[in-house]
Design brief:
By secondary structure, the protein is of the alpha/beta class. It folds into two domains: 3-220, Spore Coat Polysaccharide Biosynthesis Protein SpsA, Chain A; 226-433, UDP N-Acetylglucosamine Acyltransferase, domain 1 (3 Solenoid). It is 20% helix and 32% strand. The strands form five sheets. The chain has an 18-stranded parallel β-sheet that branches. Strands 1, 4, 5, 6, 7, 8, 9, 10 and 11 form a nine-stranded mixed β-sheet that branches. β8 (138-143) and β9 (146-151) form a beta hairpin. α3 (78-89) packs across α7 (196-206). The radius of gyration is 32 Å and the shape is elongated. The N and C termini lie far apart (104 Å). The mean pLDDT is 94.
Length: 457
């Protein structure tokens, strides 16, 4: 007997008020569908089919290897979606068919395993939950303890809507029983669609449909609005942060730390409030990040300090310092003990071991050696209007404040530039380069100016 999995991902999600397919909205840097597919993979199905519809091309482009897409056109309800999937799967008579919605990112593999186990020997098993607010969910209809069906919210009577036990669109079916029940579905309902819930009622009439309750209703929370997306994201954030704190990452205020699922942290790291770490960002032991840091696809090394700053595809070495109010753009690498300080912007730049760019500078397309100091107001003039050019600054160089380095240009080891200079030629090692107009004083200027000024009446 095989386990076949069907993930329903064809819906438009009209309440999201977006052209983006609902299942491609993200939580912690991953799509809703990606979270669901991970949970499904945890039960080791022999085959996984994703039913797509709205934005089919976009959804299909995100599917991992080994997961097949099938298009539902037109979209005539959940029952119709499963019909389309079964047609693609072929013969499922002796198999178990798992059906999961694509918008439940908190669903766990352990719960799906319990559902599949409960379905053994029965025509079907379904996940249920007791929801504090059951609006929008299909209500479980029982006769005594026996499940006899599910009624959609819009078709339910006031008495049925008062119930709080809901079905959460997650089922395990005996393949042959499911195929037979789908063949008998009709569309006599408020939406004129084939409801999968009607198949459950048909199966319950001929056998035991088993209910598998989940302990935490949050696990099966679907996403049908931006408000629900935010609620689910908050729960994912709570779980991720709790797991990282248990692993030794310090967070004085975890409710204000925002991490993508792919972020890697080491024990001993400290994350202050307002930290956003996205993509494959990593933070090593002893590093302090925040307050108010945004970093994407960046690496922050051991003992580094980053605060009030933005990092994009940047590397911060051991003991390096960033900020406050620094912007490290793609290709930036700070070696051990280096510094990019207040109101410093870097791009495609290596700042060598122990070198400092303390404040108010733009350093782009540059290489800085070890132990150099870049004075305030320094700019590498790297763009000539058509092409970018590099600046090379050697070891133990002192760049005076307000220096313009017009690339391509190279400053040799232990060289110095005078404050206010525009450097257009290479500077030899150990030399002083000064480029500025000679200062001139005009005696009596203030008196002459006052004499020429018009009289005030």
């Amino acid at each position: 007997m095989s386990l076949r999995a069907i993930v329903l991902a064809a819906g438009r999600g009209t309440r999201m008020k977006s052209e983006r397919p609902k299942v491609l909205f993200e939580v912690a840097g991953r799509t809703l569908l990606s979270w669901v597919l991970d949970a499904v993979a945890g039960v080791s199905p022999d085959e996984v089919v994703v039913v797509v519809g709205h934005g089919a091309d976009e959804v299909e482009a995100t599917l991992p290897a080994g997961v097949r897409a099938v298009r539902q056109e037109p979209q005539l309800g959940t029952g119709h979606a499963v019909m389309v999937a079964l047609e693609a799967l072929g013969e499922v008579g002796g198999d178990t068919v798992l059906v999961v919605p694509g918008d439940t990112p908190l669903l766990q593999a352990e719960t799906l395993r319990a559902l599949v186990t409960a379905a053994a020997g029965a025509p079907a098993a379904l996940l249920t939950a007791v929801m504090p607010d059951a609006t929008g969910y299909g209500r479980v209809v029982r006769l005594g303890e026996k499940v006899v069906g599910i009624v959609e919210h819009r078709d339910a009577t006031p008495e049925q809507r008062a119930g709080r036990e809901v079905a959460v669109s997650t089922y395990a079916f005996a393949g042959a029983a499911l195929a037979g029940a789908l063949a008998g579905l009709g569309r006599a309902n408020d939406q004129g669609e084939y409801y999968l819930t009607d198949a459950v009622a048909a199966l319950a009439a001929g056998g035991e449909v088993r209910a598998v309750p989940v302990a935490d209703p949050a696990e099966v929370q679907g996403v049908n609005s931006l408000g629900q997306l935010a609620a689910v994201a908050a729960e994912v954030r709570r779980r991720l942060n709790a797991a990282w704190m248990a692993a030794g990452v310090e967070m004085p205020d975890p409710e204000r730390v925002y991490l993508d699922a792919a972020v890697a942290l080491e024990a001993g790291a400290r994350l202050y409030p307002g930290v956003h770490l996205e993509g494959r960002t990593s933070v090593a032991a002893g590093a302090e990040v925040g307050p108010e840091v945004f970093a994407i696809d960046s690496a922050i090394g051991p003992g580094a300090r980053v605060w009030y700053s933005v990092l994009r595809e940047a590397e911060v070495g051991e003991g390096a310092q960033v900020g406050p109010f620094a912007s490290l753009r793609p290709g930036t690498r700070l070696e051990a003990g280096a510094k990019a300080g207040t109101f410093v912007e870097t791009k495609a730049t290596v700042v060598g071991r122990g070198s400092k760019v303390p404040h108010l500078s733009y350093i782009g397309d540059a290489t800085i050696g070890e132990g150099s100091n870049i004075g305030a107001g320094t700019i590498t003039c790297n763009y000539d209007g058509r092409e970018k050019h590099r600046t090379v600054i050697g070891n133990r160089v002192f760049i005076g404040s307000d220096t313009m380095l017009v690339a391509p240009v190279e400053i040799g080891d232990e060289a110095t530039t005078g404050a206010g200079s525009v450097i257009t030629r290479d500077v030899p090692p150990g030399a002083l380069a000064v480029e500025r107009g000679q200062q001139r004083e005009v005696p009596g200027y203030a008196a002459r100016r006052a004499k020429k000024a018009p009289k005030k009446e």
